[in-house]
What does this fold into?
Amino acid sequence: MNPWVLAARPPTLWAAVAPVLVGSAFAVRDEVFRADVFAVTVVTAVLIQVAVNFANDVGDGIKGTDSSDRIGPPRAVALGLISPQHMWRGVAVVLGIATVGGIYLTWVAGWPVIAIGVASIIASFGYTNGPRPYGYLGLGELFVFVFFGLVATIGARFVHDGTWQADTIPSAVAMGFLATAILVANNIRDIPTDEAAGKRTLAVRLGRTRSVWLYIALFIATSVSISLGVRYAGYPATVVLAGLLSLVGIWLGRGLSRATSGQAFIAVLKGTARLQLAVAAVLSLTLIL
It folds into this structure.
């Protein structure tokens, strides 16, 4: 695989698309949807996540976390496929392109878009980079929940007309739980090498068994959050279908608890990302129809 494609981590990019789908569904529901805004938001969100993945690749590569002992996909900087200097240039290029999309969305929806973008980028770089990266302190799941769930979903609705809508909150929470599940699955796979490198992720702190239970709990919480949207945010009863679909994660959790090979872990990781996209698609359709 091309090392740049490898560093972009394609299987995880659905986590950037899913909340945009859901947020845009609310725009359709409120009759303020703009196709141009939707397209720019999807592309910009994916580019920001690619930049995040590049930054994490170089951050972990420099710190020696991604050693040859890890059982997940190879990392570009750690293997010497891309130098740290070139990877940072890649980050700059991708963010530069994303900035163009951000400028357009700012023109449509106003200055809060800039605040969202800047906060997201700063938080992204702090995950594995800097003197005290919070990903090494067990705070990565909180970052993912906030930025890939709450901010991404509510922001995807906001950019269509520049207004905040409270009814997006239950869906944003659900997207946050699903995105967090992706990170939990990733970190469970990396427990041995992260622990050896001093990277104290939440999975390292909890241990494999309790982390798997956390993974499963996130899907149950997703289903509950979507159901609460029916009671408190005026969602149609059909959104329960999306909540039921999220419970497929319990089956994925069973596979995660038994995984021992890189292939098995990768299968669960891909399955988690695809499940988030599927739940987002069903949730979006049931909100609209």
